Amino acid sequence: MIKAPALARSIRPFSSAVPRSFLGNFFGTKEAKKKEIIEKQDEYEVDASSKIVILDRNNSPDYKPFNAAEDMPDFKIIQWKSKVVRAQDIESSFTPESVAEAICDTYSELKGSTISPNKFSDISLADLQFRFDFAKALQSRLGFDISDYTMTRAHNVDYLYSELRKVIAHRWSSERNPNAIVLRPEDFSETANVYLNRERTEEEQKKVLDELVEKVRASASP
């Protein structure tokens, strides 16, 4: 048997080359151009009209300082409370009797009928609109806020009065300020070597001084 001779196969070697762009070679690589721009950036001429100017209150031609009287001539802050009692002054400003009197006067003002503390449990606050009006008028008369939680649960006047008694009996303190506590001489009655400073603050001193000045002016006027 005669076999045909095997055909010789040619093997081409595999090779690769980095592609080069004709335009890149002609104008230079991006890295080279970027480096050149950075190195010669101070030599380039800059068109003044192409600069970006950040306007602020110092260089803006349209800047005008705010003037409340001119810009908001009709703006007024109306104090809806007849007086304002600070949280730290509530305990010393009210008694259960004075709170009960404020409740009676407020109810009489809104309803036109008189009530007494022994009838508080019989007076319903189921009417939400009246409860809202009553709460707002009472807060205005007392001078401090009543919490929404209290008003939500106040289905009658007696409950509201009971909660307000707790408020005026609570000694004021503030967790945000460790110094915001109320101290009294009787707290240290059994401690002989502790002295409670009763000096008034600058604000309190100024208030007393202003009151004395007003009294002097009133007495001196003909």
UniProtKB/TrEMBL annotation:
Gene3D superfamilies: ACP-like. This is Large ribosomal subunit protein mL50. Its main location: mitochondrion. It is found in: Mitochondrion. Belongs to the mitochondrion-specific ribosomal protein mL50 family. It comes from Clavispora lusitaniae. GO terms for cellular component: mitochondrion; ribonucleoprotein complex; ribosome. Keywords: Mitochondrion, Ribonucleoprotein, Ribosomal protein. The lineage of its organism: Eukaryota, Fungi, Dikarya, Ascomycota, Saccharomycotina.
